[in-house]
Amino acid sequence: MRAGFPEFRLGSVLATSFTGTLSERHGAPVERIPTPQRLIDWLAVNGLTVDSCTTAQLDLARELRESIHAAATAAATHEPLPAAAVRVINDRSIDGLAAAVLTPEGNRRWRLSSPSRVEDALGVIAADAISIISGERDGKLALCASPTCRAAFFDSSQSRTRKWCDMNTCGNRQKKARFNANQRKTPGSAK
Q: What whole-number distance in Å separates Cα of residue 8 and Cα of residue 35?
């Protein structure tokens, strides 16, 4: 990762990982794609390599990110999907010209129509969001139990009872806070 920027929070689901480029939404927000180059970096890490990105394309990406977050949050809480968010997701999906290709190793990769078409990469992300929000994939949308995070994530665990968007960040932070609170309550504990 590039020096001076917060690390990416990567997950196994493209669309919800993309919403994680803005974390701690209900605390002190952390923007993980503050520049066009950082968006290029994030896309590359996720197999959607582009060679350039304009400020306008970064704005489209952030608009998509927030629309996915709004729609996923509504789906997780069984609320109606916001019409504006649905419109943005659909528009980005339609604008994308990416094709799935099979590698000799049997993996799926995305081929964008042009190395400078961030819109193609956004179309792949939007299509992924559509598949999880519409319920096409095996799993469920949930919201992180951290009161400062509340990120939407896709729970594909067998029990569908995950509480945290990421155990290594929000989960550990909450467990540590609970442990420290219990230590303060225990008589004779070190202060």
A: 14
